[in-house]
Amino acid sequence: MKNSLILITVLFFVATAGVSNSAGLQAGESVNKESRCPVCGMFVAKYPQWLTQITMSDGSTEIFDGVKDLMAYYFAPQQFGAAAGNTVDEVFVKDYYSQKWIDGKKAIFVQGSDVYGPMGHELIPFDSQAGAESFFKDHHGKKIYSFAEITPDVIESLRKGHTMKGHKMKEHSMSGHTMQDTPMPKTN
Description:
It is built from 4 helices and 7 strands. It is an alpha+beta fold and 188 residues long. It has a domain at 33-159. The strands form 2 sheets. A 4-stranded antiparallel β-sheet has the order 2-1-3-4. Helix 2 (67-75) packs across helix 4.
């Protein structure tokens, strides 16, 4: 009996070891220090608390230094190097308070707070409306969005004028792109 219990325990740990958050990175896994955001070119490993991810239809994963760059890519992936026909399947962000990976399409975002990301003003993600509202109040937020409410205009207003120190930021217009123009990621 004791051996059976030990065997079951070992099998459980083996079976669950390496279980990911469904995103490209596993919980606690670090990003390659050479990984760059495909939108702004920033080294993303320096900012683990701001990491976001997209999984593409070809199975590749893109990692970003914040929600605003993830959303810029989401609305126009081919403008940032994705192959023609390669679409966004999944979106992952980290809840600001818990730092746990969550489904970006189900997250709630706060804009215009006194908390800045690596490139300035950022959309701050939460796994619940209550978390977003608490942060909104405590950090002087300006607006709360669901994923579907974020538009290319919102993203362009956040990105306008932001550059990396010593680098010119890629200029890409997202005008003409809407949530309806962009295929929604598949849900399981």
